[in-house]
Amino acid sequence: MNVPFIDTLDPAYDADLHAAHRGARETSWYARTPLGLMLLRYEDVYWLLRDSRFREQGSDALELAGIRDGPLWEWFGEIVSNKEGEDHRRLRRLVSQAFTPRRVQRLRPLMREAANEFLDRFEADGACEFVSAFAAPYPVRVISALLGVPHEDFDRFHAWSTDLSLAFGSQIAPQRARIEAALCALGDYVDDLLAKRRQRPADDLISGLIAAEEAGDRLTGAELRAMITVLIFGGQDTTQCQLACAMASFLDHPDQFETLAGQPELAARATEEVLRFEPAGSGSPRVALEDVERHGFLIEAGTVVLPSAPAANRDPDAYPDPDRFDVARESPQPMLTLGGGTHYCLGASLARAELEEALPLIAQRLGRLQPGGEARWRVGSLIRGPERLPIQFEHRVPC
User: Fold this and answer.
1) Which helix (H) or strand (E) holds 75?
2) Measuring CA to CA, which residue among 367, 55, 92, 354 is closest to residue 214?
3) Chain-wide mean pLDDT for the chain?
4) Phi, psi at 319, each rounded to 5°
5) Does this model's pTM top 0.90?
């Protein structure tokens, strides 16, 4: 079999990764990349996400960048996504007691209120830069309410999250000082929050995490610190990118924007479709713990394998007409943007709720959507999306 090569470090790849995946997937179930193997088809990505013979790449990515100590190394070693086995199961059990669907559901009125507030600020202007006007501040408002911290700290949250996102890209070593400065500042902020909540508990996630206990076991101070920094970073950066990806999809498919405006009851389907069609998450690399055979091919122990969500989500064997964006789509398969198996995204219910509340409101209030200038996308990162997305629109007149 002729195995294709995809240069994931080439800016041209980021410019049109779906075309690269499509061409490679037609000839092979996997591709070679500068960083390891990439799985391209739905059934294979689904399999990899659930196979215990692979672990998260985690700190290996730092070692490849020549980093083996310091704040970033320590953080990678503590965050739940990089834990495996019983350590991982223990952390998820404890955290799940505080991070409940009920707690997320209680935030939906606040999500609607925040979305309307940000839309009020620019709706009359007929144009905005969508990332700074909505995609960035909206998830900060939500995560602030979840954690019980002042949303006035938006500027700091956003700056820290932007810098921390560099830890999941291809330029870790040259950006190390910037990443670690943000990580240390965020860590100090979290330490202050933890000290205040220990003295005066509140009805928020931080207090719930402090109190979470099972059979006498609690999160350690280092685990709490790591968990909350991840929630602040992940709850802001990934949702910002997914909202921006959603709006970019609507700019290319204004008919679907009109469909959602007229049928807001499609919110849940539309959310699944924007997550499938243009995912902010590319997939978290895995490492083979032993020799593994797949389709007659030997994946040797130590091999890095990327379960590509963007490729799997456009597989025609899983989705009819996969390159068609359709907010009314009833997908026969769950999209893989949020991962799968034991490492399924902890914040999946929060991310879905935020999109389900925001997208219909945006569509109902902004009409005749069109580009307002050139978009600029993040490059060389596992977390992708527009960093700048100018849009133009007309104010919809309520019937």
Assistant:
1) helix 71-78
2) 92
3) 93
4) -130, 120
5) yes
Phi and psi based region of residue 268 (left: phi greater than 0; alpha: psi -120 to 50; beta: remaining): alpha
Do 145 and 157 form a contact (C-beta atoms < 8 A)?
no
- Domains with residue ranges and CATH for the chain: 11-395 (1.10.630.10)
- Residue 133 is given by DSSP the state I
* pLDDT given for residue 397 in this prediction: 62
Q: How many angstroms separate the CA atoms of 22 and 42, rounded? A: 12
Q: Which of 151, 180, 226 has the alpha carbon at shortest distance from 65?
A: 180
Question: What are the distances in angstroms from CA 21 to CA 3, 5, 31, 196, 322?
Answer: 13, 10, 9, 48, 12
Q: How far lies 70's CA from each of 73, 75, 82, 176, 229, in Å? A: 5, 9, 17, 10, 16
Q: What is the pLDDT of residues 232-261, one digit of tens each?
A: 888 899 999 999 999 999 999 999 999 999
SS3 212: coil
pLDDT for residue 398 is more than 80: no
Spatial distance between the Cα atoms of 53 and 57, rounded to a whole number of angstroms: 13
Residue 183 phi, psi dihedral angles, 5° rounding: -65, -40
